[in-house]
Amino acid sequence: MRVLGVGSAIALAALVCAGCGRERSEAVHVVGSTSILPFAELLAEEFQRREPGVHVEVHGGGSTHGLLAVANGIAEIGACSRRLHADDPGEAGFLPIAFTQDAVAVVVHPSNPLAWLSSAQLRDVFSGRAASWREVGGADLPIRVITREEGSGTLDTFVRQVMGNVHITPKALVQGSSGAMKEVVKHDPCAIGLMSLSQVGLGLKALAVDGVAPPRSAAERSSYPLVRPFLFVVRGAPSGAARRFLDFARSPEAQLLIEQERMRYATLVVRRGGDGPGCPVWRVWGRQG
């Protein structure tokens, strides 16, 4: 992992200090994953309600951006939506604190007739080997790959668990957040992308992977191939308001808030049905949130 350049450090410092003039006795800065962002904001709001003297400033930027912010002393807490890299000496000094799990969803336009893809098919699609949906059992339309930026925890999880040493096609359109990904894919019948399952919502379809439907509950996450931790990351032992915020994030009350927030998002997930042996049918179930 690298150190922030001067320009980046100044820009990020200005960003996290935007609320420094607030009249609070303590401040905590959380920077990182855009997938974690809505949950971090929710936790910050409730924590501040419980501790009015503390201001929690939450910003996105990506998982690696959050780690760099902590490493450079710009933020007390990094938000990271991937596992830390054991083979990266730059990440060895971080303390990861898991506060929930999430699934990475492979998303397409609702008009796409496919209900699932295997890991091998996903490698072909995202590498560009498969140029048409017909090559993986779909319609005779071109495939448009939409991916996330380097440093994204969502991308990191997908590459490690699906792509391996196979590179994503250089023709892929890069998006900088789950929200941007959603807007592109829901308006393009030929698109396929990656995002946090908790933010899929109506207007997209999340495909099953290797025959396993995207999980709707914690109990279902164990069998889905693309599950990753949501981490708050610190350097050294946390103290003061940062420690209290981290303790709150792992409390039963906070876990209930997180699960309620997941349910707020309208989700389209495929569920396996069946019209006879050897002829599985995959149906889309929607929930208006």
What features would you describe in this structure?
The protein has 8 helices and 12 strands. The chain has helices at 6-16, 37-50, 63-71, 119-127, 153-163, 178-185, 240-249, 252-264, and strands at 26-32, 54-59, 77-80, 94-108, 116-117, 144-148, 173-175, 191-196, 205-209, 227-235, 268-274, 280-286. The longest helix has 14 residues, at 37-50. The protein starts with 5 loop residues before the first helix and ends with a strand. It is globular. It is an alpha/beta fold and 289 residues long. Helix 2 links the parallel strand 1 (26-32) and strand 2. The strands form 2 sheets. Strands 1, 2, 3, 4, 5, 6, 7, 8, 9 and 10 form a 10-stranded mixed sheet that branches. A two-stranded antiparallel sheet has the order 11-12. It folds into 2 domains: 6-102 and 227-264, 3-Layer(aba) Sandwich (D-Maltodextrin-Binding Protein, domain 2); 108-226 and 266-286, Periplasmic binding protein-like II (D-Maltodextrin-Binding Protein, domain 2).
Entry summary:
With 289 residues, the protein is α/β, with parallel strands linked by helices. The chain has eight helices and twelve strands. The protein has two domains: 135 residues, Periplasmic binding protein-like II (D-Maltodextrin-Binding Protein, domain 2), CATH 3.40.190.10; 140 residues, Periplasmic binding protein-like II (D-Maltodextrin-Binding Protein, domain 2).
Provide the descriptors you would attach to this structure in a database record:
289 residues; alpha/beta; D-Maltodextrin-Binding Protein, domain 2; ten-stranded mixed β-sheet; 29% helix; globular; disordered N terminus
